[in-house]
Amino acid sequence: MDFEYHLPVRLIFGRAKLERLGEIAAGYGRKALLVTGKHSARATGLLDRSLALLEGTGLATVVFDRVEPNPLTTTVHAGAELARAEACDVVIGLGGGSALDTAKGIAFAAVNPGDISEYIFGKPGAGALPIVAVTTTAGTGSEGDSLAVFTNPATKDKKSLKSPFIYPKASIIDPELLTTLSPALIAATGIDVLCHAMEGFIGRRSQPISDAMALQAIALIGRNLPAVYEDPGDVAAWEKVALANTLGGMVIDCAGVALLHGLEHPVSGLLDVTHGQGLAAMLIPFMEFSLEAAAGKFKAIAAALGEDTAGRTDAAAAALSVDAVRRLLERLRLTPRLRDLGVTWEQVEWLSENSLRTMAYALGNNPRAAGREEIKALYLKCL
Ligand SMILES: [Fe+2]
């Protein structure tokens, strides 16, 4: 057995930990760019609370509140320009995965010249401004990884920047901040957590540390995602889901995503759909496609989701994981087909080509290889 594990992120987890934002951010700079979405942080009062906390420690703050869902590379460039013009020396992401990823991209682009798409496709960077993340959803796990996903509006390529420079210096995970989410968003983001853990767990690059975190995340999601979906005010259950979210990010940081994300990114890149809905539309066919190649792993997933796997063959026990996930999706009322998300038969060719071109790393991580024909067949099956 050999593996490496490295996670240089200070994770500050617990109720009311937002109160430490000023003190923590002030440790990394003197002027902050606070990156957030267009509406929710303002509507919930979180933006004002955060600004007051930052002001209380004497940290000057400039707000960049132009982050959209499925953030664009052009938004990153605009934010980086503002960071440079204002001479900001620390970037704070406040929000869900889109805000956190955009904060990471801005921190990176502020010191690496040119189009960030070049770095996304492999050009090495040379540093980034320090990043502080405050997560308000449980989905991407961005607070615990060195990834940030962007869509290039010119090509519709939706792909991760992966760079050691974009690990947040510190991440605040305060489960109380998640209680204002809508059930539909809770379901879509929560399924992303499950998929990160599952894909990293079955992936070819899985390793013992990420496997332990993945199984824990899967079990936490199985038990607690329905609870927060049905009662978004349940902070005790949110603690578990928030932990699963961060664990999921830590899993994909070292083990990577696999075929399902490889299929989904082209969909949300082309059609700007909610990532978790795209995942949900293809989750069951992805599991059925991959099942035999990693039966032992899927058996462990079934057990983590509460299925009784005792005395069964690996194949029979693995199949129970599909049943458990199907029931979870139904309970979350998250059972779209691709056509419900706007995908048409004519787009399958583009989606397949884009997946092969931009998501080769994820496709190569799947325990069962999928080539052009298998990918097309999976899209068609999910239409
Ligand atoms: Fe994801």
User: What percentage of amino acids are in beta strands?
Assistant: 5-15%
> What ligands can be seen in this structure?
fe (ii) ion
Q: In terms of per-residue confidence, which ranges show pLDDT below 50 for 5 or more consecutive residues?
A: none
Q: Roughly how many Å apart are the termini?
A: 41 Å
* Class based on secondary structure composition and strand pairing: alpha/beta
For the record, the CATH architecture of the largest domain stands as Up-down Bundle
**Helical residue percent band:** 40-55%
Mean residue pLDDT: 98
How many β-strands, per DSSP?
A: 8
Q: Helix and strand succession?
A: EHEHHEHEHHEEEEHHHHHHHHHH
CATH class of the largest domain: Mainly Alpha
CATH superfamily of the largest domain: Dehydroquinate synthase-like - alpha domain
Largest sheet: 6 strands, parallel
Domain module count? 2
Shape: globular
Query: Strand order across the biggest sheet?
Result: 1-8-5-4-2-3
Radius of gyration: 20 Å
Summary tags:
alpha/beta, Rossmann fold, 52% helix, 8 strands, binds fe (ii) ion, globular, Dehydroquinate synthase-like, alpha domain
Give structural notes:
Residues 8-175 form the Alcohol dehydrogenase iron-type/glycerol dehydrogenase GldA domain. Keywords: Oxidoreductase. One of its GO terms (molecular function) is alcohol dehydrogenase (NAD+) activity. This protein is of the alpha/beta class and 383 residues long. It folds into two domains: 10-178, 3-Layer(aba) Sandwich (Rossmann fold); 183-382, Dehydroquinate synthase-like - alpha domain (Dehydroquinate synthase-like, alpha domain, Up-down Bundle). It is 52% helix and 11% strand. It has 16 helices and eight strands. The strands form two sheets. Strands 1-8-5-4-2-3 form a six-stranded parallel sheet, sandwiched between helices. A two-stranded antiparallel ribbon has the order 6-7. A hairpin with a 6-residue loop joins strand 6 (147-151) and strand 7. Helix 4 (73-85) packs across helix 5, helix 10 (259-271) runs antiparallel to helix 11 and helix 12 crosses helix 13. The model has no long low-confidence stretch (mean pLDDT 98). Fe (ii) ion is lined by residues 140, 192, 196, 261, 275. Fe (ii) ion binds at residues 140, 192, 196, 261, 275.
